[in-house]
């Protein structure tokens, strides 16, 4: 797998209440191929908890990008990555219903609003 020439992103603490809908912010506009719904994407990503700002997952920490079909990911990624172009960096703020469901849903992140910064490295 290719690796991003970029470094691990920093996620600034977000002020105000957690959003009720997906918030998509392009941090860097890509110029490569566009990700389509249902595509397989290769990404580097960082995820933090909206309220605490604590990191819960990062491909950067493993020093390896990851490739997977969008169809198998949380709804916030299925909705938030299409339209993104290779070379881009996008921030997604995913409320619980677009992440791991309501509190008590059986996942350690159930009920949490999650913030991801995603670098799109490739699409298939």
Automatic annotation (TrEMBL):
Domain PPIase FKBP-type: start-end pairs: 38-124
Stored SUPFAM superfamilies: FKBP-like
Family: Belongs to the FKBP-type PPIase family.
Gene3D superfamilies reported for this sequence: 3.10.50.40
Enzyme Commission number(s) of this protein: 5.2.1.8
Listed PANTHER family: 39 KDA FK506-BINDING NUCLEAR PROTEIN, FKBP-TYPE PEPTIDYL-PROLYL CIS-TRANS ISOMERASE FKPA
Keyword Iron in record: no
Keyword Transmembrane helix: no
The entry's keywords: Isomerase, Rotamase
GO MF term list: peptidyl-prolyl cis-trans isomerase activity
Domain of life: Bacteria
Protein's recorded name: Peptidyl-prolyl cis-trans isomerase
Source species taxonomy: Bacteria, Pseudomonadati, Pseudomonadota, Gammaproteobacteria, Lysobacterales
Reactions mediated catalytically: [protein]-peptidylproline (omega=180) = [protein]-peptidylproline (omega=0)
């Amino acid at each position: 797998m290719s690796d991003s020439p970029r470094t691990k992103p920093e996620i600034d603490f977000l002020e105000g209440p957690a959003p009720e809908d997906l918030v998509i912010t392009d941090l860097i506009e890509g110029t490569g191929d566009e990700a389509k719904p249902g595509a397989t994407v290769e990404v580097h990503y960082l995820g933090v908890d909206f309220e605490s700002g604590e990191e819960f997952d990062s491909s950067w920490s493993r020093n390896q990008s990851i490739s997977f079909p969008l169809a198998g990911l949380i709804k916030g990624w299925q909705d938030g990555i299409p339209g993104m172009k290779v070379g881009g960096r996008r921030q997604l703020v995913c409320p619980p219903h677009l992440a791991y469901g309501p509190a008590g849903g059986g996942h350690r992140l159930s009920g949490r609003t999650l913030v991801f910064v995603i670098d799109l490295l490739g699409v298939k």
